[in-house]
Specification:
Elements: E1 3-6, E2 11-12, E3 22-25, E4 34-39, E5 64-67, E6 79-84, E7 95-104, E8 112-119, E9 126-130, E10 145-148, E11 157-162, H1 164-168, E12 173-179, E13 193-202, E14 211-212, E15 218-220, H2 225-231, E16 234-236, E17 243-248, E18 262-268, E19 278-287, E20 296-302, E21 313-314, E22 316-320, E23 326-328, E24 334-335, E25 344-349, E26 355-362, E27 366-367, E28 373-374, E29 379-389, E30 413-417, E31 420-424, E32 427-433, E33 439-444, E34 449-453, E35 458-466, E36 471-478
Antiparallel strand pairs: 1-36, 2-14, 3-13, 4-7, 5-6, 6-13, 7-12, 8-11, 8-13, 9-10, 9-12, 15-29, 16-19, 17-18, 18-29, 19-26, 20-25, 20-29, 21-24, 22-23, 22-26, 27-28, 30-31, 31-34, 32-33, 32-35, 35-36
Length: 479
């Protein structure tokens, strides 16, 4: 019997995984493929307790398999790997090591490492280092080192690591090291419970449980409540002394450029690290570079007061996908003293990411004479009118919306019959995807009923667009 499952608005990728999956660890099954799952041995403490970051000083307690803290979300297992941090100790060396009993050769069938992760406090994020727990080098970012952050505290999320470097260089996977909190020597984090579960290798680059946003363009106005509710899952100042607030637009002479009545004000403190700007997390992932069309992130920035001895200010845009891959604009985007008090559009090509889950705006980014990043003084900055679209040019006029447009959902009927995907209604285009988001068939529809033969059983995502622009996103299971 065929089974049809409908999705509303957004496409949700389920926790169904590739048949090629290799399960490395699950709390509900023993033994695992790891010979060791604990804090790095050389950091487990000495006579002076200098390295006791977990358990208590009197009774160090490191990892344990215990009760899953939340079975209502993504991870429904009974057990998971758990550890608790100690307040009062720095980030070094709180490295959690997963050492494989035997090395695993990386192929196209097991290129992606998946790990369910849960943490009570997000803190400053975490970093995953493959086959190495002793050095966290910047040149290894995106190849062997992956700096990551969950989007929500107290919720299971699937993190994905692309092992492409190990595939390309024929290097086997031997261990996974997690730097639990990346405050990089900036003081101790609060006591936090951490959990890991369902660690696996497969051929899917998408996280389990991911929400793929259906929109083809993004337009975010921070002071517009419907726009904010649609596009923002979380705002993160990345430093406890930074402050972000929604305020009345103080630039009344600039309404011909941007007419927003309210904008976001960001007060960067003097203690903020150079990379700790305004971080915006989307409620899902936004697909970029679709059909090889370049995609650009736009952010309108206004700096009312600038240091006359420092001209220009570098505004750095940073964009990340869901797997720790990130790109930034470097030193290319500049805001000049002559622009002070004016809205200037910062534009950054994000096509290469494939999927965008979050972006950060870093203000007044500076370097020393050795070309190393340094912290800059405190400052006040304003941001609004963020967009993602195919326009490569800086905007000179932006009009805030009177209403927020959501993708329309049609009443077209999509189902399976006789090993075919059937679409009934006034569809003009139909596209079929597999569960990792790859398009496998796209046609123009000319009749009320369209049938698409499917050669293999499985789950397919179907996007149909009607003659009046309504969109229907449906998941079909063919057995």
């Amino acid at each position: 019997m065929k089974k049809l499952v409908l999705l509303s608005m957004a496409i949700y990728c389920t926790s169904l995984l590739s048949a090629q999956e290799t399960k490395l660890f699950t709390g509900d099954t023993t033994p695992s493929l790891f010979s060791y799952m604990d804090m790095v041995p050389w950091g487990m403490g000495d006579a002076a307790n200098n390295y006791v970051n977990f358990g208590t000083t009197a009774a160090p307690a490191f990892t344990e398999v215990t009760t899953n803290p939340d079975k209502t979300g993504l991870n429904a297992t009974d057990k998971a790997l758990h550890l608790t941090s100690l307040k009062g100790h720095s980030w070094w060396p709180d490295f959690l090591d997963f050492t494989l009993t035997s090395p695993i050769t990386i192929t196209s069938a097991n290129r992606y490492l998946h790990m369910y992760h849960f943490r009570e406090n997000l803190n400053q994020g975490f970093s995953v280092n493959i086959n190495n727990e002793k050095t966290w080098e910047d040149p290894d970012k995106g190849t062997k080192r992956f700096d990551m952050q969950l989007t929500t505290p107290g919720k299971w999320e699937d993190i994905v690591i692309d092992l492409k470097w190990f595939l390309d260089n024929n290097v086997a996977l031997t261990s996974i090291a997690v730097l639990m909190d990346t405050n990089w020597g900036g003081g101790a984090e609060p006591v936090t419970n951490y959990y890991f579960d369902e660690i696996a290798l497969n051929d899917s680059n998408l996280p389990r449980g991911i929400n793929i946003l259906p929109d083809t363009q993004m337009s975010l106005f921070y002071g517009n409540a419907p726009s904010y509710a649609k596009w923002v899952k979380a705002i993160d100042t990345q430093n406890a002394t930074n402050v972000s607030t929604i305020v009345a637009n103080p630039f009344t002479t600039q309404t011909a450029t941007l007419n927003s009545t309210q904008v976001l004000k960001f007060d960067k403190s003097a203690s903020a690290a150079w990379w700790q700007g305004l971080r915006t997390v989307l409620p899902g992932v936004f697909k970029v570079g679709v059909n090889a069309v370049p995609t650009f992130l736009h952010v309108m920035v206004n700096i009312p007061v600038m240091d006359p001895a420092h001209d220009p200010y570098v505004i750095q845009l940073n964009a990340k996908d869901f797997s720790g891959n990130q790109i930034d604009s470097g030193d290319l985007l500049k805001y000049f003293n002559s622009d002070a008090g004016s809205w200037v559009d910062m534009v950054f090509d994000v096509t290469s990411l494939g999927y965008l889950q979050e972006f950060s705006v870093r203000f007044d980014v500076r370097k020393d004479i050795a070309d190393a990043y340094i912290n800059s003084p405190a400052g006040t900055f304003y941001v609004d009118a963020v967009s993602i679209d195919a326009n490569p040019d800086a905007r000179t006029v932006v009009v805030s919306p009177t209403a927020v447009v959501n993708p329309k959902v049609s009443d077209m009927k999509i189902y399976s019959a006789n090993h075919k995907i059937v679409v009934e209604g006034n569809a003009v285009s139909i596209e079929v995807y597999n569960l990792i988001g790859k398009s496998i068939n796209k046609i123009s529809a000319t009749t009320f009923k369209t049938e698409l033969p499917v050669s293999q059983s499985g789950v397919y995502l179907v996007k149909a667009v009607s003659v009046n622009g309504n969109i229907s996103n449906t998941k079909v299971l063919i057995k």
